[in-house]
Specification:
Length: about 290
Amino acid sequence: MYTAINWALDLGLYAVVCAITCALWWLLGRRRDSGRLSSAGGTSSEDNQAPRRGGRAHLTVVRALPLIYRRSKRTGALLPREENPDTPMTAEIPVIAAPASSMWRLPRALPLAWFLYVVGLLIITLLPLPSDPVAACAAIIHWDNYTPFGSFVAVVEQFRDGENLRGTLYGLSILLNIALFVPFGALAETSWRIRRMRSAPADGSRLVRSIPHRRVLAWAAIGCLLSCLIELTQYTGLFGVVPCTYRVVDIDDVIMNTLGAYAGVRLLPFMARNSRFMGASPSIPRA
């Protein structure tokens, strides 16, 4: 029951943090989009007057687009002008087609996703702290496990002894340790690919491509190191903040976290194909 109460407190705190963060992100995105649209309108008017002032001014793609298209004030998309009805759609120009500008889609939403994940990871693995550390350390019963897959044996024994609720919570915590690091693997690989896309521009289909096995193992190894750091933090009582090990230290947590990071990297291409948040559909239409 104590474990269930801690989970409820962690989820409540995380929900509040998510709500505040998303509200601030929304306000920041609205402000940035309004500034971008106003600057785009000013650039368009200046570019319309530039050919009149200069005789042989250097015409770039950025200057030519406002002459051919008009920009939507609501979405920022390029739309054909009424005086040019035969203008091709921007989807037919893959070289200059801009990526999705929504603040809730990648790549703009990547900092938000990382922030929410890191905050959730810290809350779930380190909180809540005992209100009275000395009394908590005196009354705590350590169930630390340093034997690989010893947690599975403990779950079976608890069900065999009739402790169904305890065994269910213990088994659920094992599954949650896998789910906890699935976002890490997916976000790490996504960040890597978006960085490569900026250095070598390509369409969004790069996210749905297969991942080299060597890089999958590298992300899984980094996930394992991160999990070991978390277990060390728990073992040392948040590096001395709490005078004892106030959380269960379990080698199976490291194993399950590593498995979750591996699964997150492997599942990224499937998530990119089916998720609107990823925005990974190719921008070049097929003939």
